[in-house]
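Run: sequence + magnesium ion -> complex structure.
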Amino acid sequence: MSQIKAEQITWHAGTVTRAERANLLKQSGATLWFTGLSGSGKSTLAVALEQVLIARGHAAYVLDGDNIRFGLNAGPKILMDTRGYSETQAKRFGLGFSAEDREENIRRIGEVSLLFADAGLLCLTSFISPYRKDRDAARKIHQASKTGPVPFIEIYVNTPIEVCESRDPKGLYKQAREAVAAGKGMGFTGVDDPYEAPLNPEITIDTGTLSTAEGVAKIINYLIDQGIIKG
Ligand SMILES: Nc1ncnc2c1ncn2[C@@H]1O[C@H](COP(=O)(O)OP(=O)(O)OP(=O)(O)O)[C@@H](O)[C@H]1O
Ligand SMILES: [Mg+2]
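>> structure
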């Protein structure tokens, strides 16, 4: 067994500055963290914003909760079926939807988004991320980055649950209500698992009253105001 301790590591600083990256990419890197109930419109907004940013000449990339669960944060079965891991490995690496696994899901995304943003990209993350402490932890690592603070913009998609539930594109609210009615429960955010709303989000968008285009415009204006992109 290795005798090396996990903490026996030394940070090796690069020589490329934040300003050099910003100069190359004509933008400052940042994480735009979408949070909100299932069906609130996070993915729709993030994908539309990514398209607009690219069309304006910016390097942007969406990390979407559902998509990331096909790879980096996949569950054991997907890891075995698509990545060829053994059952033991898949159990060790795979993530489900328990509170612990949701925490690890968001922890990994916090770290990955920080890397993307530090590289100079506009990283758009679209995860329900229901627990305040997990989102705050992601914010904190951006603020405490060894390469200097990285902007972390929390976008609260605060569409009312009645609107989200009436959309129910994945049929998950219906499934969760039935599970609760049957006395089993499903641990579904907003139904029988909590959603802890952000206390001080940088941006709030209710897609029940704002169109996708209006929501995107609100975010673009914020990025221009903050000097992250040029108007
Ligand atoms: N501004 C809007 N106006 C009307 N409908 C919208 C708007 N934004 C999103 N929708 C619709 O709401 C539904 C849910 O949106 P979306 O899939 O983006 O939600 P989500 O927050 O990513 O949910 P999940 O957490 O389950 O991935 C979709 O059918 C989408 O077309
Ligand atoms: Mg989504």
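>> summary
The radius of gyration is 19 Å. Residues 64 and 93 are 19 Å apart (CA to CA).
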